[in-house]
Specification:
Blueprint lengths: L3 H4 L2 H12 L3 H11 L5 E2 H8 L3 H13 L3 E6 L2 E6 L1 H14 L3
Antiparallel strand pairs: 1-3, 2-3
Helix pairs in contact: 2-6, 3-5
């Protein structure tokens, strides 16, 4: 008997992790915004722009960071976030591979 874990590749696991991180419209907006910026964005500015609380934004940023899609730099007392362009390229490749026929 083949175990389920043997048929699920590491690439599919990584794709699922990224898909989960992107499964919320706020997180999609954040990634889209950062992808089109040449610089980083401060979390406080994102909270104001989105009209959400800082704790809610923090949870969204945590999910994106956990998936490796963004990275943060602390410039006390602020945190600025950037798209992790290397991992974003990997995510794009994974999804392209997933939807190939």
């Amino acid at each position: 008997m083949v175990e389920k874990t043997q048929v699920i590749s590491d690439e599919l696991r990584q794709t699922a992790l990224i898909a989960k991180a992107l499964s919320n419209p706020v997180r999609l907006y954040i990634v889209q915004k950062l992808a089109h910026m040449n610089t980083c964005c401060y979390s406080g500015n994102l909270a104001e722009e989105l009209g959400i609380g800082r704790s809610t934004l923090s949870q969204h940023l945590k999910e994106l960071n956990y998936a490796g899609l963004i990275q943060g730099e602390i410039e006390a007392p602020f945190i600025k976030y950037c798209l992790n362009r290397e991992n974003w390229a990997i995510a794009r490749r994974l999804f392209a591979d997933l939807f190939k026929e």
